[in-house]
Amino acid sequence: MRPDTPAENVDHPAEAARLERTADLYPEDAEALLLRAAAHRELSGDRPAATALYDRLLSADGTLDNPHLVRALKASNLWEYGHEAEARAIIEGLRAAAPGDPAAWVIVAESLESHDELESAQETFTQGVKALVADAEHPPVAAHPLFFGRHRVRRMLGLPHDDWDVLADSLHSMPITLDELHDPKRVWSLGSDNPAELAAEISRLRAELGAYREALSRPYPVAVLHWPAPELTELLAAYPALESEYPSHGTHLATIESSLRELAASGTPNLGIVTGTVPSYEAFAASESTSPSDPTLLPQYATTLAARGRAVAWPPGRGVGCWCGSGKGYGECHGVGG
Q: Does residue 115 belong to any structural domain of this protein?
């Protein structure tokens, strides 16, 4: 959500302005684009401008995909530049609303944590876990930060491990264990006068940061275009020249899966799927002064959708439905044999 790029390498005000202009051109994607713009405003230090963008989104609350996320980001931003009372009020409202998005819980809990309210942060992480994934043996990837944040805060509070802390350990994939990663003594070691302790801690931090940056190394996924059956039928009826690209819907779905597996096997990271619609495709063709019948336009359309925040990560996480929309789990559908 928040760009993880040093300020000296990115002109954050310019990038925010570019995203805001893009949001004006593509109002259907304004939510994702303006959230990224607000992140750049925060990174540039212009927190009031970021708040204005959050307010702009919330003024159209009825059309937002995730208003709770926007409110959580607004609360976190407000607290950072002195509006603590308003931030607290928003956080309490969000906890009472029990949002269905793990990210909203994580943001407000981390906001409390960053202001040394560890007990409240632990309660918020725990409330989020109970509300969303309390009984899940394999919680979705999006919920993992809830478990990791809860583990971290409980470690700082000196609380003993419980079943959810054990689950957090099992979900953690980095070579450094969560117990070591969240050890409060590591913070103290940064102030040590012992060169060996400092060198060891710097090595650990480099390993952690390297893994984190690797996951964020691309601004948007390498995405493959997916047409649901009704959209593909409409597309081919309007532009029969594309039939050579899409002999049948079943073949189209199989091609998507095989293409993504080939990309994964070649070492390409950060893969995704974008779903097309005929009106959106026609509008894109018009913006490029090109006929929708031109097959070379299709990958450009996919790239543009990904850049506008429309991509869904591939492969789906464990327990998540298949990307094709069949209603089956991925492992029982296109993920069979994967």
A: no
